[in-house]
Design brief:
about 110 residues; alpha+beta; 2 domains; 3 helices
């Protein structure tokens, strides 16, 4: 049986001597399923522990970014409701407000696949 050593896709070091791993990056395609992404996160953490990295970064989590964006809208509505004496802003009214004052949409600033 042959042993295959696995390595992280990218390691960012904290020094020029390449002796202090700082960030361990695991690259996955953007269309990964939630299960594949969860495995990639576990894999990245195991690489970080083995290499001594302080941070873990896993690419290809567009669904997670969208989920965060939806959560940001919900939190914005929640805090707007706390400021109001009426205590409840209907979703229709909030949607109209979002049309007038939209949140910036999430975007990928740099892709490792381009």
């Amino acid at each position: 049986m042959k042993f295959i050593a696995k390595e992280a896709d990218i390691i960012v070091y904290a020094n020029d001597e390449l002796t202090a791993p700082w960030i361990v990056v695991e690259c996955k395609k953007p269309e990964v399923t939630e299960q594949e992404f969860a495995r990639a996160v576990d894999q990245a953490f195991s690489y970080a522990v083995a290499e001594g990295g302080k941070y873990v970064w896993v690419t290809g989590n567009w669904r997670g970014l969208e989920k965060y964006y939806r959560g940001a809208k919900r939190r914005w509505r929640y805090w707007l409701n706390r400021r109001s004496a009426q205590r409840d802003m209907a979703w229709e009214r909030f949607s109209r407000m979002l049309e007038r004052y939209p949140l910036p949409p999430p975007k990928v600033v740099h892709s490792v696949y381009a």
